Amino acid sequence: MELPEASTSLEATASAAAAAAERPSEAAALRALVDRVRAGEVDAAREVRRLTRASSRHRRKLAAAVEPLVAMLRSAAPEAGEAALLALLNLAVRDERNKTKIVDAGALEPLLGYLQSSDLNLQEYATAALLTLSASSTNKPIMSASRAIPLLIKVLKEGNPQAKNDSVMALYNLSTVTDNLQAILSVQPIPPLVELLKGGKRSSKTADKCCALLESLLGFDQARVALTCEEGGVLTIVEVLEEGSLQGKEHAVGALLTMCESDRNKYRNVILNEGVIPGLLELTVHGTPKSRVKAHVLLDLLRNSPYSRSKVQADTLENIVSNIALQIDGEDRGGKAKKMLAEMVKVSMEQSLRHLQRRASYA
Fold this sequence. Notes:
Shape: elongated
Distance between the termini: 76 Å
Radius of gyration: 27 Å
Number of helices: 23
Number of strands: 0
Organism: Zizania palustris
Order of helices and strands: HHHHHHHHHHHHHHHHHHHHHHH
Strand content: under 5%
Structural class: mainly alpha
Protein name: U-box domain-containing protein
InterPro entries: ARM_PUB, Armadillo
Helix content: over 70%
Largest sheet: none
């Protein structure tokens, strides 16, 4: 019985010894690879990209390649620049130290140059790199002080589909620094944001970030005016409210609530006219805790509509009342829900018809 244990122990010792022997060899190979990058070898940059694609260990061990890769990024040879860009992108993914190291090494200037490239692939890679770098709180103020925001908006308007998706996510990351909202607004982001929402899937991550960014921007009158002037602007947010992911719906109702709270008289009918009531009622039952609260507040702001009462089937109304009543605190929950809904359903038929007509016109 002891022989197998002894054999296993010997095998484990041999395996550990072999691993220990390999480690210095691997370390030497990685140092040699970095030296090759320093010498400007394009194939070495490609090897760094390959090794760091799915290995956090290699990202950590090849951090020394960052500075020579940034130097290569400035190369006039497109092939070298692309190889360096993709290697840096992989080094930055899920590695906070490398993210800050890349920016500290001066990568922003050449990356912003690639954002303006006529080569849409290079522009896409640069946008992806900036998205990754913008996730670092240390990098955000440095990127904000550069030309990143207006160039990302330009990509949002003119880039290929993937670059547009990455640019809106990078802009969202930068928007979490409150001072950046005015900088974003100054380059007229509302039309391309609405266009991106219209053209994509309402439940996508891109739609989530679009609505999150819009929710922040709509705190400013300039953005609210721009959205209402944009054909189908408010309607597109209502569609996310109905068809989006849970997070997308939360940001969509937040965006509409921000508008209505800023000037109820000005924006109440604008929102009602897009047929928002069914989506709001559903959200009070099936939304996240935050979106349920926001939906209740917005419903309250939208009530007392001047339109004539619509006929709603009694059983349908009772089902809605029952669901809403479960979400309302207080002793007379059912009565409170019925009172609120009685005021809301006055416009349901008119708005549903108007909503269908508007959707048909944008199809």
